[in-house]
Amino acid sequence: MSLRPAWLTFRRYAAATTGMTLTLFALGVYTAATGSGLACQAQWPLCSDQLIPALVINPDFIEWFHRVWAMVTGFLIIGVAGWTWLGGLDRRTRLAATLAVAILPLQITVGAVTVTLGGLVPGGYTVSTHAAHLIVALTIFTLLALATIWGGGRGSPKLLRIATGIALVGILGSVVVSRAVPFVTYSPGAQAAFYVTGLAGHLGLVATVAYATEAVGSGYAGVDRDAVGTVRTLAAGSMAALIVTLLLGRDLVLYTSLWQQFNLVALGVAVALAAGAAWVVRSIDGTQATAEPIAGD
Questions:
Q1: Could you list the residue ranges that cross the membrane (predicted)?
Q2: Could you report the per-residue pLDDT of 153-200, keeping only the tens digit for each?
Q3: Which of 51, 105, 171, 245 has the most CB atoms less than 10 A away?
């Protein structure tokens, strides 16, 4: 008899863990943007000589809460990998989840270095460590997304359409709060919102590429493989441009007007290619619906 409730499937657990990771990403950005990463007297794992700081909203608490969320999320990620092995999921799902766990210690180490200015590692709060922290986090997020997608079973034209829709909506949402488009002040809250929406768009693009690759390989009933191949190419291009904007969303370069223009171009490319992918998928659906006979005819 299984102790696991019937509603708790692998896809739901993995999706929740991916959501926790996305939230952790946004928390990390907010923590850095408010300067709270320099709190806790630059100590790790303690915070101002305490295991648990005063539970009031101040820089110490923000940094500590980020660490706690990261710890819980880390255990959930380990659980995803364990499920893929004990649950007998396919090889690619096990590989994605296991790689996420394998690079988790690197992320923890870089995170510790990032917040230990004058602490364990003098000079840890630098551009290079922030860049590494961001890139490794994005890699883990992508691997978890793939494990969720692959572990949930076979795709379909409907799922492909949903994925492109999520990608386009997420990218458009990121445009509103991007530092490249001055609709809103790029405050710590706006920065966190930019990464929530941008990562949602990235998630949609990852799913689009995964489902389109499946369709090209094994095919979906009534769907032209050349068309889904085009969708995959457009989504991959959009993803590359979006990643550039995610990197430029942090202070990894001296953000001059030239970099702002470059960022704006990258956003435009990401939106245009994602819109193109969504349009092709819409055309595929229309063709399929026309081609398939109505039941009873």
A1: 21-44, 64-86, 98-120, 132-152, 159-180, 192-212, 233-250, 262-281
A2: 888 889 999 999 999 999 999 999 999 998 899 999 999 999 999 999
A3: 171
CA proximity to 286, closest of 204, 237, 227: 227
Per DSSP, 40 falls in state: G
Query: Beta partners for 47?
Result: 50
Residue tagged 């492909």 (tokens): 160
Q: Which residue has the tokens 């997420």?
A: 170
**Residue 7 pLDDT class (50, 70, 90 cuts):** confident
Any idea what the Cα angle at residue 49 is, between residues 46 and 50, rounded to 5°?
70
Instruction: Residue 233: name the closest of 279, 198, 274 by CA.
Output: 274
CB count within 10 Å of CB 18 equals 27
Q: How many CB atoms lie within 10 A of CB 129?
A: 21
DSSP 294: P
Q: Which of 170, 149, 144, 148 is nearest to 159 (CA)?
A: 149
Both structure tokens of 168: 């386009």
> Which tokens in the block code for residue 190?
């706006």
Alpha-carbon distance 56 to 172, whole Å?
A: 35
Quote the pLDDT of residue 286: 46
CA distance 177 to 33: 14
Tokens, residue 34: 């408010």
Q: Are 212 and 160 in contact (CB under 8 A)?
A: yes
Which has the closest alpha carbon to 28: 131, 117, 143, 101?
A: 131
CATH of the domain spanning 155-288: 1.20.120
Least Cα distance to 25 among 200, 228, 285 occurs for 200
Domain boundary assignment for the chain: 1-153, 155-288
pLDDT of 255 > 80? The answer is yes
Give me the phi and psi of 296, to 5 degrees please. Answer: 100, -10
Q: How confident is the model at residue 291 (pLDDT cuts 50, 70, 90)?
A: very low
**Do you know the residue count of the chain?**
297
